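On clarity, I found the account of how folds are encoded harder to follow than it need be. An entry of this sort, consisting of the sequence and the corresponding backbone structure tokens, reads as follows:
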Amino acid sequence: AVLQEILEHFANGQFKPLPRRVFPLTQATEAFRFMQQAKHVGKIVMVSPSRSGQADAELLRTDGSYLITGGFGGLGLKVAQWLVDRGARHLVLVGRQPPNEAARTCIQALEEKGVEIVAASADVADQEQLKGVLARLDSRYPLFGVIHAAAVLDDGGLSSQTWERYERVLGPKILGAWNLHVLTQDSPLDFFVLFSSIASLLGSKGQSNYAAGNAFLDA
């Protein structure tokens, strides 16, 4: 409620943002020198010259496909929307279980925007299942990007953990990433993204298996 009240003050002009001087990252040296000489009032902000909608759109292509593992979960669907907003028109969403009602609703909304979506049920830890998904890709739209967002949790104190519980968590993270690497290393990818987590450094209690899986992705 307090945040909403503050936002309203900004909207009606009662509050003003702090003054700022913006430098592109290519002028980082000049920005730090400007600060060192105390020439600034307010904040110094450095921005990437590619952080514009046009630059993002140019990263994605309409003549290729983009694959998302964990594609039926909240994070995977959010990424799918992000890709579509930046020009992607052919998506391959992969999940261990078929999409639930909420996921189907999101997929339908994307398809209504003219996006072609392949919804594939497969365990990314199983290389043969993943190979089957890739075999279904339309040859007219080669794979240009991979985003690995699959994850499974099985929390518990270290004394209560078993190797079976570790395998359940490490499989999607480690084997999934490795299988994607092996099966797409000859594809003309523009990017290969692995979703890790700060859990590898500052994990919650009981997440030794999850922390290990993310540390592998970091490495």
About this structure: The CA atoms of residues 2 and 8 lie 10 Å apart. The first strand starts at residue 20 and ends at 24.
